[in-house]
Amino acid sequence: MSAQREMKEKNPWPVTIIIIVIGVIVIVALVTVAVLQNMPLSQKYKYGIVLDAGSSHTALYIYEWPAEKDNNTGRVQQTHVCKVQGPGISSYASEPWKAGESLMACMQEAQQRVPGKRHLETPLYLGATAGMRLLNMENSSASDAVFRAVERSLHTFPFNFQGARILSGQEEGAFGWVTVNYLADRLEQGLETTGALDLGGASTQISFVSSNYDGSESPSNSVTFRLYGNNYNLYTNSFLCYGKDQAMKLLLAQQTLLAPKTIVDPCFHPGYSEAVSYSGLYDSPCVSNRKPQGAPEAFNHTGSGNFLQCQDVVKSIFNFTYCKYSHCSFNGVFQPLLQGHFGAFSAYYFVMDFLNLTDTSIPLTKVKEVISSYCATPWDEVKRQHPGVKVKYLAEYCFAGAYILTLLTEGYNFTSDSYTQIEFIKKIKGSDAGWTLGYMLNLTNMIPAEAPDSPPLPYAGYVSFVTVMAVLLFVLVIVSTRRFWLRCSKRPQIV
Ligand SMILES: Nc1nc2c(ncn2[C@@H]2O[C@H](COP(=O)(O)OP(=O)(O)O)[C@@H](O)[C@H]2O)c(=O)[nH]1
């Protein structure tokens, strides 16, 4: 029997399906490995702690950032803030141990918040500002004793304590500027920077970059930075005694010169009346040379709530009469022409927020009307309208509003146009505006002088690229072997 030849068409589909399945598995495996291999590792965080020992109070800030990449802009974030109970550490001059004790509760909170395995490597800084600057001027041994007490307390915690020190006014201004611009991602991207206006209790700072300022005129106001490959020539000035609380002391002292027993203060509400001790008023180097001869123990501080008169008295604590530079702000201090946007924080924010004036598109004339009407409101009515607000703050918003307006417009020369460039801010992307973050970034070298090298493609771009290439490769294989499969499917086979 001759060999039986059977003509049969071979079915190509099983092989095609196998190839497609293998192809899909290869693509999925390739992309999965590529994605997993290059995926950021599960986030581990590092921490840093800064204590802001201000004139009115101390606050503890905890910052965190991803452990594997320290240098990326905007990656350091504030995760916790703890307000220390009681006054600022400079108020403990006569019983320094209490300054150390006052920090314990917030430090214990920090110990709970920072994971135990990170304690030893977590840097801890304490920076003191104008309250301690004043105490140090007045009584340096008392200021040393306060520092010894806080250092003793901080050493009892398992963190990497880097020391407690007084920041200069220039540092306070410059680090506030770094914080604001770092948080707004302006530094790494080399964008035009935002100026910083900080109103504390004992000093106030103004810092900005101006194309009219290269540091040659009044070099003491110049701070230079090289950050992410860009050079910055920053103008900064700190006015000691022109923080909100010390400015009010200056104002009261001024008025007691005319009426040592009872002052009728236009910056306080009608019906306001409070006994103030002279020793309390004159305990600061800002006012100590102005004490009236033969002053009684205390004077009666009453209010008349007259905004225009208040502005006049406020103006009298500034000196606008002399300037040896091309331009000055006040008290003979050089200031270049204002330029760009400004972020105004600390007491600027507290006060303008209370007065509902954080919107700077409100014309200055209207701003004055609002403050004027608040000042004219009788004290009893003010207390009735704001039962939840601390009485001390409530009493001071009239003065503080008038002071802020005068400082900005007469002191720093903001006009009705440039005023709209100010933004009153408390936080930026969840972190408080203030000098602490900039201070820590500087001390931990977390902002590089040069722009860091970045991979040619961002992570998402890399994943998309690998996926597209794998799919193209697969299609190419299918297309190039298509003829072969077609032939297989058409050629009769002899079995
Ligand atoms: N209205 C109001 N004022 C505040 C608050 N916290 C602090 N202040 C006042 O704002 C001013 C500045 O405070 P701060 O920025 O803490 O300054 P520092 O104490 O000198 O560092 C001081 O006169 C404080 O008394 C607040 O929550 N509300």
TrEMBL record:
Any one Pfam family match given in the protein's UniProt record, by short name: GDA1_CD39
So where does this one cross the membrane? 12-36, 459-481
What reaction(s) does this enzyme catalyze? UTP + 2 H2O = UMP + 2 phosphate + 2 H(+); ATP + H2O = ADP + phosphate + H(+); UDP + H2O = UMP + phosphate + H(+); a ribonucleoside 5'-triphosphate + H2O = a ribonucleoside 5'-diphosphate + phosphate + H(+)
Q: EC no.?
A: 3.6.1.5
List the molecular function annotations (GO) for this entry: apyrase activity; ATP binding; GDP phosphatase activity; ribonucleoside triphosphate phosphatase activity; UDP phosphatase activity
Localization per Swiss-Prot or TrEMBL: Membrane, Caveola; Membrane
Q: PROSITE patterns, per this entry?
A: GDA1_CD39_NTPASE (PS01238)
InterPro entries to which the protein is assigned, alphabetical: GDA1_CD39_NTPase
Record keywords, A-Z: ATP-binding, Calcium, Disulfide bond, Glycoprotein, Hydrolase, Magnesium, Membrane, Nucleotide-binding, Transmembrane, Transmembrane helix
Binding of ATP, residues: 201-205
- How is this protein situated with respect to the membrane? Multi-pass membrane protein
A GO CC term? caveola
* Residue numbers annotated as active site: 172 (proton acceptor)
Coiled-coil region: none
Q: Which cofactor does it need?
A: Mg(2+); Ca(2+)
The family annotation for this protein states: Belongs to the GDA1/CD39 NTPase family.
Q: Describe, as the record does, how this protein assembles with itself and its partners.
A: Homodimer; disulfide-linked.
Functional note: Catalyzes the hydrolysis of both di- and triphosphate nucleotides (NDPs and NTPs) and hydrolyze NTPs to nucleotide monophosphates (NMPs) in two distinct successive phosphate-releasing steps, with NDPs as intermediates and participates in the regulation of extracellular levels of nucleotides. By hydrolyzing proinflammatory ATP and platelet-activating ADP to AMP, it blocks platelet aggregation and supports blood flow.
**Record protein name field:** Ectonucleoside triphosphate diphosphohydrolase 1
